[in-house]
């Protein structure tokens, strides 16, 4: 074995020992409040990646889509057509708020979505709930942030995971969450005139 | 309608007009080089969310997993068991590098993965290729970054999308990419002693 390889392997043995020790201390299981925010891509799609994992592990799950309702998104037809039993799929919103241009209707849709979300989170059969684009509804105060945070902190069953996605997550939600990821836009081809494309954006 | 609602609706009309104008200028379709990097979560799972969209839209796709090979990941069994025709799934790596502790074997595995990756990218039947955790292989120089970037820029078919995931993406790759998202860790429950959990982490 070359000297470089031996050095590398020794370094990796050290890393492994440190990781093993760290992992020993991680014993707690609990349902997480997760937030995906930021201007970058991947907020919803990583939520749907987790839904794929849940279905594979036979973890009953639910999705409530707050905004993208009238789009023919790949994830909606995929889950509704193939996994209606494994993953309940609800739509409350009717498109982005600049498409509906009707605040009263947006509020009614958001409130309906939140009512469904609470039912799913409280349902003992459901272990993972994805609240897709709920941050948009919170940002425009279609939903009351204090009520949402209070519900998550006091009424969510201990082992139930909830993932909330969308730009501009409110500070109160970030404070309450266990795991927050900000998707940061480093480069985006929209700037260069490339359209939203099937499979990638929706 | 209340005054607040009217103001809101007028603002949304303006936003919609600006967006419509912007979208008119976006007419180009092309296969993208996408990178998901950063320390936050969602790099792989958003890749698998796009795979879900591809399957739904009947876009033939392929996955090459460079590192997580010997994990029983939800995405691997889900895709292999249910979508072997729609999504080709290859595994080259045998675990994180600190688990194998054998640089020569890691290099052989990475090279094998890259050989498969090139075949899939060049295959005219395949329109989306996910190179999961390839950035780890590039970071440790198991693969030559110049060769990978050169292949993507000069040999990738025009309409084929390639998504490369993993921490510490090399600057050369970021420079070459069309779309780069950095997943930034804002908060992580590992710090508080919570273990990696099914459905969420794998």
Automatic annotation (TrEMBL), chains A, B:
<dbReference type="GO" id="GO:0008817">
    <property type="term" value="F:corrinoid adenosyltransferase activity"/>
</dbReference>
<comment type="pathway">
    <text>Cofactor biosynthesis; adenosylcobalamin biosynthesis; adenosylcobalamin from cob(II)yrinate a,c-diamide: step 2/7.</text>
</comment>
<dbReference type="Pfam" id="PF02572">
    <property type="entry name" value="CobA_CobO_BtuR"/>
</dbReference>
<dbReference type="GO" id="GO:0009236">
    <property type="term" value="P:cobalamin biosynthetic process"/>
</dbReference>
<feature type="domain" description="Cob(I)alamin adenosyltransferase N-terminal">
    <location>
        <begin position="2"/>
        <end position="23"/>
    </location>
</feature>
<comment type="function">
    <text>Required for both de novo synthesis of the corrin ring for the assimilation of exogenous corrinoids. Participates in the adenosylation of a variety of incomplete and complete corrinoids.</text>
</comment>
<dbReference type="Pfam" id="PF12557">
    <property type="entry name" value="Co_AT_N"/>
</dbReference>
<keyword id="KW-0169">Cobalamin biosynthesis</keyword>
<dbReference type="InterPro" id="IPR003724">
    <property type="entry name" value="CblAdoTrfase_CobA"/>
</dbReference>
<dbReference type="GO" id="GO:0006779">
    <property type="term" value="P:porphyrin-containing compound biosynthetic process"/>
</dbReference>
<protein>
    <recommendedName>
        <fullName>Corrinoid adenosyltransferase</fullName>
        <ecNumber>2.5.1.17</ecNumber>
    </recommendedName>
</protein>
<dbReference type="GO" id="GO:0005737">
    <property type="term" value="C:cytoplasm"/>
</dbReference>
<dbReference type="GO" id="GO:0005524">
    <property type="term" value="F:ATP binding"/>
</dbReference>
<keyword id="KW-0963">Cytoplasm</keyword>
<dbReference type="InterPro" id="IPR027417">
    <property type="entry name" value="P-loop_NTPase"/>
</dbReference>
<keyword id="KW-0627">Porphyrin biosynthesis</keyword>
<keyword id="KW-0547">Nucleotide-binding</keyword>
<keyword id="KW-0067">ATP-binding</keyword>
<dbReference type="InterPro" id="IPR025826">
    <property type="entry name" value="Co_AT_N_dom"/>
</dbReference>
<comment type="similarity">
    <text>Belongs to the Cob(I)alamin adenosyltransferase family.</text>
</comment>
<keyword id="KW-0808">Transferase</keyword>
């Amino acid at each position: 074995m070359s000297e470089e390889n031996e050095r590398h392997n020794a370094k990796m043995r050290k890393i492994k020992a440190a990781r093993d020790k760290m992992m020993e201390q991680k014993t707690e299981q609990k349902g997480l409040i997760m937030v995906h925010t930021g201007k970058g891509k991947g907020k919803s799609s990583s939520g749907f990646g987790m839904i794929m994992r849940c279905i594979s592990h036979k973890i009953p799950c639910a999705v409530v889509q707050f905004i993208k309702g009238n789009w023919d998104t790949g994830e909606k037809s995929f889950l509704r057509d193939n996994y209606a039993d494994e993953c309940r799929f609800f739509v409350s919103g009717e498109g982005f708020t600049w498409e509906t241009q009707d605040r009263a209707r947006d509020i009614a849709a958001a409130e309906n979505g939140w009512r469904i979300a609470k039912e799913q989170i409280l349902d003992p059969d459901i272990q993972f709930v994805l609240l897709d684009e709920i941050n948009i509804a919170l940002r425009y105060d279609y939903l009351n942030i204090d009520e949402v945070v209070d519900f998550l902190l006091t009424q969510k069953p201990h082992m139930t995971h909830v993932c909330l996605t969308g730009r501009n997550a409110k500070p109160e939600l970030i404070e309450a969450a266990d795991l927050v990821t900000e998707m940061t836009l480093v480069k985006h081809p929209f700037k260069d005139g490339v359209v939203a494309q099937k499979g990638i954006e929706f």
